[in-house]
């Protein structure tokens, strides 16, 4: 999907609009619309304004937000520990709320994390729910069974090892992606980011499987290593201890 800034000329109000070619079976923009409808009461998620079809495109209108974390990182090269701790505490709470509504995001990364604007300038937003999916049965509330889906979901650099292996995603996978994101923000890079694109899938998976947590988290607070280790130890259907995770970062702020 492509994202554009648009203006309501009657209200003189700016919004963001996502456009994607409509396809049989539903576009990612359409899937995002249905997810956001169910997540509407969560702070730090984009406010849904309108969804419909224009010409051959699905269009989703949401509130305009501020800069991407990825853009801010390009300006500063890396973030200080206190900033990352501040981001981590909000992001863990956002992910907890998403999970409490029966969804996994499926693509946590710096490009999908934005700052707010105006009165919400200190609020951290998670966006892009085109890959979000339910991990609980809509009627029984039971956790979906583990299965192989034979495809990688998310973005290679930040996706979980389970995703690389073609497994169904659970709550633990969003948190593992968050761990890679936070390490990236502290370091300004990840060891596997410069791999040749033709070898990315296999080489990134191999590095994630083989690299020691202490090496990956070198020159970062030990709490990041503890967090990554914890996420990798969670089972597919296990409910994470979000309070414990927040406690890891509360002392760093």
Automatic annotation (TrEMBL):
Pfam families: Pkinase. Residues 1-253 form the Protein kinase domain. Transmembrane segments: none annotated. One of its GO terms (molecular function) is protein serine/threonine kinase activity. Gene3D superfamilies: Transferase(Phosphotransferase) domain 1. PANTHER family: CASEIN KINASE-RELATED. This is non-specific serine/threonine protein kinase. It comes from Scleroderma citrinum Foug A. The lineage of its organism: Eukaryota, Fungi, Dikarya, Basidiomycota, Agaricomycotina.
